[in-house]
Structure formats: C-alpha cells, structure tokens
Amino acid sequence: MNWMNSEAFTLFGQHIIWSDMTGNILGLITLALGWRRSLWTWPVQFLSGLVLFAAFYGHLTGSAGKQVVVMAVALYGWWQWQRTKDRAGDGHITPRFATWRERAAMLAAAAAGTVAVALLFTAYPKLSWDPWPDAYIFVGTVVAMYAQAKGMVEFWIAWLLVDAVGVPLNFANGYAFSGFVYVIYGALVLWGMRDWWLRSRRGPQPALEGAPA
C-alpha cells in the first residue's frame, strides 16, 4: 500500500497524496449519506477507516490506531441504526435532540478524552504531529459519530467544532486535500443540521428522563 502514500497531484501548490484524497472523499460521501439518514453511511465510514488504516499501518502507527477506533464506532453506528431505522415512516431513523444529561455526558467525555489522548500523544511523540489539536479532532470525531449513531441532532454541532480546528491544522501540516474537504464538510454540516433539526420537530420527541409516562 506504499503507493497510497505517494503524490497524486498538486493543487494550488499543495501536494495531494492518494491516501489523504481517497480517505477524505469517502468521508465526504459518509457525511452526505448521514444527511440522508441512509444506513449506507456506516459501511462507507468503515471503508474510509480501512483505507486510511492500510495507508498508515507500518508507517504512522498512531494514525493507524485511530482508524481502528473509527472503524469500531462505525460498526456500532451500523448496528444502532439497523435496530432503529424503522422509527420513521420513510424507513430511516428519526432524528432527535439529546437530553441535557446526554449533552453533559458527551461534553464531559470529550473533555476528559481529549486530555487523556493528548497526554498519550505527548508521551509518545511518534503517535501524533501535534498532540493537543490532534487529540481534540480525534476525540471530537468519535463523539460526533456516537451522537450520530444515536440519531442526535447535536452530532452536526460536534462536526462543526471539529472542523473549526481541523481546517487550519490540516493545511498547516501539509494535508491540503483534508483541509479542502473539511471546508466542504462545513457546508454539508450546516445543510444537514438544518434538515435533521426540522425532521426532529416533525418526528416524535423522546420523553424527558425522569418525566412521568
């Protein structure tokens, strides 16, 4: 798979490598399928992680390890959507807003996870080129995927927060194609969030925790 780490072409003076381009195109397709609430979003996400794992394995151990986590969450997302896809009349999941308890839990997990992963990256510099931003993006991606698996509208907000750091970080570290794709991610996220937001208002709302039936 060494060819995947070779240069595909040059764009605006930036060197685009095959693995960066392929993995992120699949990631873009994943986000578009997520917008449509298609079950196919998870197999494509898994394939994206598999492509990047193959490209990084034996070369960038930390990056390869992160893709294993992404693939595991993709399998969980597929299982979760497979169980709940019949909630909506169109055969797809019905988006909903997270409860305040769920939001607090995700924020706490994101904060604790970012600190833990950043400390790991700092202790083993070969795992990451920039420990804290890289940890933030990695943990934020996992949290966003988890929220998506649960059908929460907030997953789009999590992606926006990841994009805010991902775009400048990728450009700064020479991953130009990732940077360009993250910009497109931002546009898709805004449209997707609007669609899920409206659908959550039309669909049945989950009961508040502790409220009487």
TrEMBL record:
Q: Does the keyword Signal apply?
A: no
- Pfam hit, one: NMN_transporter
Its placement in the membrane is given as: Multi-pass membrane protein
Q: Per its UniProt entry, which superkingdom is the organism in?
A: Bacteria
Which segments cross the bilayer? 12-33, 40-60, 104-124, 136-162, 174-193
From which residue to which does any coiled coil extend?
none
MF terms per GO, please? nicotinamide riboside transmembrane transporter activity
**Gene Ontology CC: one annotated term:** plasma membrane
| Entry keyword set | Cell membrane, Membrane, Transmembrane, Transmembrane helix, Transport
Which PANTHER family does the record cross-reference, listed alphabetically?
Answer: NICOTINAMIDE RIBOSIDE TRANSPORTER PNUC
Q: Which family does it belong to?
A: Belongs to the nicotinamide ribonucleoside (NR) uptake permease (TC 4.B.1) family.
Q: What is the official name of this protein in its record?
A: Nicotinamide mononucleotide transporter
> What organism does the record attribute this protein to?
Streptomyces argyrophylli
